[in-house]
Amino acid sequence: MIAEQIMSDVVPALKPKDFCNTALSWMEVFKISHLPVVENQIYKGMISDTMIYDANIFDNPVSELTNEFITAKVSPNQHFFEIIDVFSRYRLTALPVVKGEKYFKGLITLPTLIESLSVMFTSDSHGGIIILEMHANDYSLHEISQIVESNDARIMACYTSNIPDSMRMRVTLKLNKNDLTSILRTFERYEYEVSASYVEEDRFNDIIKDRFDSFMQYLDI
Q1: What percent of the chain has pLDDT over 70?
Q2: 212: Cβ contacts below 8 Å, ≥ 6 apart
Q3: Which of 117, 140, 161 is the last residue of a domain?
Q4: DSSP assignments along 142-158, one per residue
Q5: Is residue 152 predicted with pLDDT exceeding 80?
Q6: Domain that residue 138 falls in
Q7: Does the pLDDT value for residue 221 go beyond 50?
Q8: For 195-215, what is each residue's pLDDT tens digit?
Q9: Tell me, what's the pLDDT at 47?
């Protein structure tokens, strides 16, 4: 799942000339604490309710907070796990999707993110999960599928993400089979690096624990 697939089509963007009071009203309506500022589809940055209260400029345009704008953003094809990282790092309730350097495409809100997380990891389909790591040039979904299917299993979902500061990538496979023994052995025989595997009962907590703990702590605030 990538950023452009989970954008909200409800929450509007602010214009630089909009008043801070307007921003606070919209934040209250949509139950978020951040809004993007956009001019002619060009992303300028984000403001928060805390910025407005600290500056005490309720009747002034949001452009007066330009020097305080949050610059966080993701690209349309950014992977779901990377989106979670940005939400957590900046402690956001909304995150702009920006094409190239500045072209505003839309907004991901915290409720939308949580809903997408539920869809990804609380599916009715049963089965195990295997996480592979490899050089980006070695990635072949066709070969991976052949290995899985040769062991009488099927890939129900496949998620890929780049490993930061490297040419390597992570491939997460959701399968329709709980007994992963023969599949894991086949991957090892074909010299794939299996970084982790999970069965149905522990799949949610373990697969995203390292990336999602800080995010969940934020939700508890």
Answers
A1: 86
A2: 84
A3: 117
A4: HHHHHHHHTTT--EEEE
A5: yes
A6: 124-217
A7: no
A8: 988 875 554 445 445 555 555
A9: 97
- Lowest-pLDDT choice from 31-35, 50-54, 114-118, 120-124: 120-124
Domain match, 170 and 213 both = yes
Find the DSSP H helices in the chain.
Answer: 20-30, 49-55, 80-90, 110-121, 141-149, 181-189, 203-207, 209-219
* Token reading at 86: 């940005």
Q: For residue 198, what is the enclosing H or E element?
A: strand 193-198
Could you give the CA distance from residue 72 to residue 107 in angstroms, rounded to a whole number?
Answer: 12
Q: Say if CB 116 and CB 1 are below 8 A apart.
A: yes
What DSSP element (H or E) covers 193? strand 193-198
Number of domains the chain contains: 2
Long-range Cβ contacts of 123-126 (<8 Å, 24+ apart): 123/156, 123/157, 123/174, 125/156, 125/174, 125/176, 126/176, 126/178, 126/200
Residue with token string 């066709």: 142
| Claim to verify: residue 104 and residue 25 sit in the same structural domain | yes
Task: Pull the structure tokens for residue 88.
Answer: 């957590």
Chain CA centroid to CA 80, Å? 3
3-class secondary structure, 168? strand
Instruction: Give which of 80, 76, 70 is closest to 50, Cα–Cα.
Output: 70
DSSP secondary structure code for residue 97 in this structure: E
* Distances, alpha carbon 68 to alpha carbons 44, 60, 194, in Å: 11, 15, 44
The whole-model pTM stands at: 0.60
Which alpha helices (H) appear in 31-166, and where do they start and end? 49-55, 80-90, 110-121, 141-149
pLDDT digits (tens, 9 = 90+) for 52-61: 999 999 999 9
Beta bridge partners of 98: 104
Look-up of token digits 């009715």: 124
